[in-house]
Design a protein that fits this description.
Radius of gyration: 15 Å
Shape: globular
Oligomer: single chain
Structural class: alpha+beta
Strand content: 25-35%
Helix content: 25-40%
Strand order of the largest sheet: 2-1-3-4-5
Number of strands: 5
Order of helices and strands: HEEHEEE
Number of helices: 2
Distance between the termini: 40 Å
Length: 102
């Protein structure tokens, strides 16, 4: 347990030194197979588009930074994306719906 905690502290320290933050993609769960959430470190949120395209198979996804929902992204017509920002008053993890139909 202590080794894991030391590793987590080291990763956080490195992330702050490089300006990276932890982001999560949470894919739409309606229809088809359930895709696991993806957590990644990045210096900019746009990198989520690359990951969503590669891993999501055309599904919509919520983009989160830590416990704050930033937006919902959907790929349309190849490399074009629809980005719907989170309504004012960003949601926290406990408030997030698993269906992105809304």
């Amino acid at each position: 347990m202590a080794i894991y905690e030391d590793q987590a502290v080291a990763r956080r320290s490195q992330r702050f030194a490089t300006g990276e933050e932890i982001y999560s993609l949470r894919f739409d769960t309606t229809g088809g197979r359930v895709l696991p959430d993806i957590e990644f470190s990045a210096s900019k949120a746009y990198q989520a588009l690359v990951i969503a395209r590669r891993e999501g198979g055309g599904r919509s996804a919520e983009l989160w930074r830590g416990s704050t929902k930033l937006c919902t992204i959907s790929e349309v017509a190849g490399s074009f994306w629809v980005i719907r920002p989170c309504a004012s008053g960003a949601k926290t993890v406990d408030e997030r719906p698993r269906s992105l139909a809304s």
